Amino acid sequence: MSTAVTVSDLRKAYGEVEAVRGVSFEIAAGEIFGLLGPNGAGKTTTVEILEGYRERDAGSVTVLGADPARADQRWREQIGVVLQSSAMYPTLTVAESLALFGGYYEHPRSVDEVVQLIGLEQKRDSIVRKLSGGQRRRLDLGLALVGDPDLLFLDEPTTGFDPQARRRAWESISSLRALGKTILLTTHYLDEAERLCDRVAVLREGRIAAMGRPGELTGALPPTEIRYRQDGREVVLRTEEPTRMLNELTQKALADGRELEALEVRRPSLEEVYLSLTEEEKE
Amino acid sequence: MRLFRHELRYELRLYSRSRELAFFTFLLPLILFLMLGFAYGDDELNGVKGSDYLLIGTLGYGVVATAFAGLTIVIVLRREDGILKRLRSTPLPAPTYLTALLTTTMIAFLIQAVVIVAVGMSAFGASFPSHLFSFVLSLILGAAAFAALGVGLTGLVKRAEGASAVVNAIYFPMLFLSGSFFERDTFPEFLQVVADALPLTYFFDLVFGVVYGGDQIWDRPQDVAALAIWGLVGAFVAVRKFHWTPTEG
């Protein structure tokens, strides 16, 4: 499989503040890759360097075979960008906005096809000013898609959405997988990364704290937890062999004629992995 | 060229749909023209009929409102909204975009000039401007100089909310000091010194000279030079300070 994005030892500082301190990763063509991390972890800086908006201080970056800092119009034909804030002309209709931006590309998708893809058929001829926040965000995605790019950058595509709008956006993004697009998305929502991404890199203070498939990340971490209450106190056991430990526990409890109150067996969620990776180290 | 036509078509559509621009840059100068024209259009100002004098003043008002104020505010709003940033991620070349935007401004101002002259002729019996070629060239020179100043100014304005405040603080005093609505001779001397530095003063004198003084544009090299210098100052600042992404922090 060919590589769409290669980042190697990327560094960027703003004055004294080092926003990105040696980040390396690769994204294969057709992959959905997530950059996950809290605010200020360096996600947007990294993405904006890949989009060609910012100059890097050190490291090498190749996006679709070119250095974004020196990219030309032909390169821009192949990328689509959804920025954190949806910026569009408030007095144009949905269809006009798509036609305007589509006109910048050699081989745009048809307006109606994109309208359907983002599920705004009912709003096709409404002006942007009258759209809801979620509808604007979907048009945002449409504007990034109308040039039929190979690579899409989505910077926090669902921040500020209500749960229903997020699910709709997820469906739109998932449907792009079928089109064979490579996607780099940033998010601080774990469920979003878990749901959408093939692979995830967790950024923390400008470095990659962990990287892998969402399942691998959870697998690499703390073992299974068994919790129950005894004499009003909570007992927490961690084990690599949950089956055996659970068997021993229940046998003993049965023999004693006791109930294991509030018994719970759980694997760590990506959330806990994430928190353990991104939490400030305590003194 | 295809991209330029595409962008120009949409810029004109965006312009025509903007109520703010329609009112502040198009209607307000006309309203003031009519009001002042009925108030002292029959007096004599600077050796011509008051309404004829006001016609030139209104063209000056139009050029700062459309080419300077309107353009500055549109660019700052688009920049701070992130629209310019989004455009940078598309294959639309920056020069094509800016040329289309400036052409739109120029077209809007020339339409406005036609309307101002038509109102002057029908409401106050003004005569059709003589030396049409020099007249149009003077309007274009003025619009270009003020557009350059406007683009330059965008680089110095940090926030969207600041744009109209800064623009108004510059252009209303300039409008009055340049003598667009009253004769400058009646001002105290220090204000006349300020007026002598303002680009609008030279635009007014140039157009006045072409329309009522029997001059061609090349008979007034001092006015042309002053406008050109101001335009170059604007262009110089624009090249150094113009930015595509929202001002941070």
Query: Number of helical segments of chain B?
Result: 10
- Give the helix level of chain B as a range of percent: over 70%
Order of helices and strands of chain A: EEEHEHEHHHEHEHEEHEEHEH
**Gross morphology of chain B:** globular
Q: The biggest beta sheet of chain B, please?
A: 2 strands, antiparallel
Number of helices of chain A: 10
Largest contact between protein chains? Answer: A-B, 26 and 21 residues
Described by the principal axes of the CA atoms, the overall outline of chain A is globular
Average pLDDT over all residues of chain B: 92
Low-confidence stretches of chain A: none
- Helix vs. strand class of chain B: mainly alpha
Tally of strands of chain B: 2
**Gyration radius of chain B, to the nearest Å?**
18 Å
SSE run of chain B: HHEEHHHHHHHH
Strand order of the largest sheet of chain B: 1-2
Whole-number mean pLDDT of chain A: 87
Structural class of chain A: alpha/beta
* Total number of beta strands of chain A: 12
The low-confidence runs of chain B, each spanning 5 or more residues with pLDDT under 50, are none
Helix content of chain A: 25-40%
In words, what does this structure look like?
The complex is a heterodimer of chains A (283) and B (249). Chain A has ten helices and twelve strands. Chain A has 283 residues and is α/β, with parallel strands linked by helices. A six-stranded mixed beta sheet of chain A has the order 5-6-7-3-8-9, with helices on both faces. In chain A, strands 2-1-4 form a three-stranded antiparallel beta sheet, with helices on one face. Chain A has a three-stranded antiparallel beta sheet with strand order 11-10-12. Chain A starts with a strand and ends in a 5-residue tail after the last helix. In chain B, 76% of the residues lie in helices and 2% in strands. Chain B contains ten helices and two strands. In chain B, β1 and β2 form a beta hairpin. Classes of the chains: A alpha/beta (283), B mainly alpha (249). The A-B interface holds A 51-53, 73-74, 76-77, 79-81, 83, 85, 87-89, 91-92, 96, 100-101, 103-106, 143, 147 and B 3, 6-7, 10, 13-14, 17-18, 78, 81-83, 85-86, 88-93, 245.
